[in-house]
Inverse folding.
């Protein structure tokens, strides 16, 4: 086993601050959990895909700290990010007599992390929780920053809370078991940080994309670290998305419409975001904010990462109309007006409305 | 119509501070809502009992402030304080295209207030909300302090959030339509403030109980104001119940067991709390903390208020055992140990564990 040092990125949010630890062979290292609050019991929330791979190792590491360590295993997939599944966590917590100090551990990808976080925010009005993300997408994005929640048939993440974990433990070793499709989905969120905040990082990704796709340990470690640094910088300035933080949703307005329109779970979240970034780049160009060659460059990178760059057809009669209808449900919309995250090709993003006719043209051009 | 001045009690919680306004004919006075945040839309959440009485008046007052005012009417009763009912609110919010600035108005008693508050805490990860309590219990207790949530079959208020309203509007006029049983239930929470914080207020309640029971406007105004002052003082020191705030649960440990054991909705919450206070007073006496004559005095007052002082039988085979089992689910329990709020007969309360055998004796003596 190759020994890497533990990298640490701090999320600075006053009394809600916490560290992100990044290293290989970390999830069963008891030292990683040294600063987790004391309690009688812990509950690991995971899914049926991740449980056989990593649950026993985490249980063992926590056994030293907690008198009892419970495990609840959820079905796997975005289509299960529902109240019904969340309730399985509450049932287990109450059945085991878990109290207000019980610590929840989210072991899995974005869906497990979002649901465990919302369960922790809501159980007895709030218990502590720790993120142990096992997918690239969760390590670089969803486990960091305290966005938690579940989907509603009418929109993604419509019910949830801003609730920060005590700690994020990114074990790079878990990325070795990730299906290639999920690795690509995670790369969508890595690529995202380039155009919105750091064009030098975009250059680095372009240079190192092949290494990332073949899971080179050094390349993955840097991609996770730099992504977390950028996310920490944004979240530290705007925890509850009253302004700046919305730039992290670059590609997500179109992406959420794709996910909701196809039915949750058809496309992976990262796939929808990858394609959504291409559509948002085209819209930025239509608004005169970015050059056509940058749109080409970003599209090429998204394609090379193994992600779709053409949106799916969501309606045979009025495809663009269906996209618009779904996007009006977006959380960034206000008074019925969709607000898009647009880019300028020089490390910064902003929020903009756009005329429906222009958005329709972009959708028509970007859908197959 | 008799004109009273508007009384104002402030909840001091830094940037989450807000006023409680108390007066007659307040709910349709647009001035009451002057400081509510601007938004395109508002949503009134109420129930089928309260809607025909007060919804139109509130809608009219809000019509001046919001472009659209929506209404969602829930079934009435503690047994509907569930996820299924809460989801009706999310459905309505999404169906009407409500956004992250939409203001929710809870028009009703404790159940409506707790569910609307949790809906506001969770919809799009948090929208503003206003409490417009129409029962005595909600005006003196549940609408103030930011405890929100729903019940779980295994325990009361097990899923929820600490989430503060922007404003509480107590219209004393609404108490005129309250059924006598509900008035008595509200008096349980008024009486509670005496032993835990203010024995002079307990004296005042004893002197003025008949006036309160016949809904004398001046007596009710003072009872609501003084109760809110005491609650504001406690919540201002301990918003998230890490210590002091737990004293507000005097009578609630036994009370929640009664509610869960009988099935939600059989006894009103205030009835269970009234009886629970008598049981907690007996336990305080058994622990040597309070004189027998104070237990008698409190029991007499609870009975005069029209509330039960004998607990129901929750199990034919082992009644005390069933109470204990249910109380171990209490949110104040830690590591399986029940922590009771006990009183000393001189304006103060504290948290204590008690031997099971002693608790059994108290239950046996207090149940019919």
């Amino acid at each position: 086993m190759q020994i890497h040092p533990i990298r640490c990125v701090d999320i600075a949010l006053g009394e809600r601050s916490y560290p992100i630890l990044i290293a290989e062979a970390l999830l069963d290292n008891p030292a990683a959990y040294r600063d987790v609050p004391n309690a009688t019991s812990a509950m690991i929330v995971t899914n049926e895909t991740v449980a056989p791979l990593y649950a026993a190792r985490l249980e063992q590491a926590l056994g030293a700290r907690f008198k009892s360590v419970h495990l609840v295993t959820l079905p796997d997939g975005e289509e299960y990010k529902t109240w019904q599944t969340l309730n399985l966590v509450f049932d287990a917590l109450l059945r085991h007599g878990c109290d207000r100090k019980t610590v929840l551990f989210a072991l899995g990808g974005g869906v497990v992390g979002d649901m465990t976080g919302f369960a922790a925010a809501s159980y007895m009005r709030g218990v502590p929780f720790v993120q142990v993300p096992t997918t690239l997408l969760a390590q670089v994005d969803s486990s960091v920053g305290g966005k938690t929640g579940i989907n509603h048939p009418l929109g993604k993440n419509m019910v949830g809370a801003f609730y920060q974990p005590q700690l994020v433990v990114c074990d790079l070793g878990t990325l070795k078991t990730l299906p290639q499709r999920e690795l690509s989905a995670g790369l969508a969120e890595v690529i995202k940080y380039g155009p919105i905040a750091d064009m030098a990082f975009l250059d680095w990704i372009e240079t190192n994309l092949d290494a990332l796709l073949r899971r080179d340990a050094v390349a993955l470690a840097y991609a996770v670290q730099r992504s977390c640094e950028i996310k920490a910088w944004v979240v530290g300035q705007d925890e509850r998305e009253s302004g700046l933080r919305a730039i992290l949703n670059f590609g997500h307005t179109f992406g959420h419409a794709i996910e909701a329109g196809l039915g949750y779970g058809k496309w992976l979240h990262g796939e929808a975001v990858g394609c959504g970034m291409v559509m948002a780049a085209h819209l930025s160009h239509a608004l005169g904010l970015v050059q056509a060659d940058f749109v080409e460059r970003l599209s090429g990178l998204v394609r090379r990462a193994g992600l779709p760059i053409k949106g799916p057809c969501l309606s045979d009669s009025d495809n663009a109309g269906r996209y618009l209808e779904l996007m009006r449900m977006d959380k960034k919309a206000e008074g019925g007006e969709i607000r898009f995250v647009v880019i300028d090709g020089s490390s910064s993003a902003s929020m903009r409305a756009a005329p429906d006719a222009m958005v329709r043209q972009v959708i028509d051009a970007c859908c197959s």
Remarks:
- The mean pLDDT of chain A is 96.
- The two ends of chain A are 46 Å apart (CA to CA).
